[in-house]
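Appendix B. Raw example, untouched.
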Amino acid sequence: MKADLHNHSYFSDGFLSPRDIVKLASDANCDLFALTDHDSTNGIVEAKSEADKLGTNLVNGVEISAFWRNSAIHIVGLGIDIDNDELQTGLEFNQTLRKERAKKIALGLWRSGIKDALEKAQMLSGGHMLTRTHFAQMLISEGYCKDMKSVFRRYLTGRKPGGVRVEWKDFKEVIKWVQSSGGKALIAHPFRYRMTHTKIKNMLIDFKEANGDGIEVINANSSDQEISLGNQWIEEYDLLASVGSDFHGWPNQRVQIGNLAELTNNSRAIWSYL
């Protein structure tokens, strides 16, 4: 099974259209593919149309921002009903928070001497959802930083000029949004958060107690050690396993759809439960 269940289009912070992303998945011979835009399902209809045309097996997905113990985490919902009212009400709440954050980021950057940040970031977003990635790409194109890692470190986190705290909903509520729509809720890229292994394990314990379904064991940047720990923890905490590249498609990013390590623990693979 060649699956890639974590990808973004320009309906959130990706560069390409849903149609183009599905074409890439087809070209990569993905057996199973998901579009998981941040806090939005607006690209799913277009993706489904292209997937049907190409014979690609598309899973409806979304990636939702949430809080766990005062830390921001992302929960991927797979196999969702995009017409579910509870899910869409939750996503609309997050979209409002994102709009407010974008204005605050622009104000913080303006105070640090970077003018017209909001307008320039909006041009990159193409009129769709405005995210931190758009501000980051704008700052790179304007020559303030050379790459995503440095731009987030210098401008967009913590007490930096564009660092803005957002009061997302508790992860327990977000899990309910996903599951109310018939989907499975999984923690995205668990090793990407600034957490020790002990803290990650505490998160998994709480997630399981809240009836969460699984974790993303493999992404495009996973190390062998991370994959090994992920496989160990899904057994230890009785969770399902997913894989996803977290593809965004910006020209200065190297991640490719479908270019992932193979999931060895197929008995817990998420696709058996979708």
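End of appendix B.
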